[in-house]
Amino acid sequence: VQLVESGGGLVQPGGSLRLSCAASGFTFSNYHMTWYRQAPGKDRELVALIDSGGITTTYADSVKGRFTISRDNAKNTVYLQMNSLKPEDTAVYFCYARIFLRNYWGQGTQVTVSS
User: Which residues pair with 101 in a beta bridge?
Assistant: First the structure.
C-alpha cells in the first residue's frame, strides 16, 4: 500500500490549493479515504472523509463550506480542494486509509497560509 500526497505549498490568506493523494497497492474503490492535518504543536485532526463510492462526505466544522473532498476511482486518487484558506489552516496534510484493519498514512504535504 502506498499513499502519495502532492499539491501543498505557500498561499496567501483567501487563496486556494488542491491536494492530491495517489493510491496504489490496494483496490482503491473499495475503501473510504480520509484527509488529516497536523499543525505544529497540535494533535493530528480529521479534515474530511469520503466513502468508497464518493457519495458520502464528512468534514470538520472548521473547514465546512471551504474545503471539498472528492475522488476519482478510475485514477486511484483522492483530492482535497481548499478555498478561502486561513492562516490557521497551516499544517501538514496527510492522506489516510484503513485497509484490512491496518492504518496507512502518506508522507504528508505542507500547506502554509501566510501573507
Answer: none
Distance separating alpha carbons of residues 91 and 88, to the nearest angstrom: 8
* N- to C-terminal Cα separation, the chain: 37
102-to-48, 96, 105 alpha-carbon distances in Å: 19, 11, 10
Q: What is the pLDDT of residues 53-89, one digit of tens each?
A: 999 999 999 999 999 999 999 999 999 999 999 999 9
Answer yes or no: are the C-beta atoms of 108 and 20 closer than 8 Å.
no
- Side-by-side strand order, sheet with 77-82: 2-6, 17-24, 77-82, 67-72
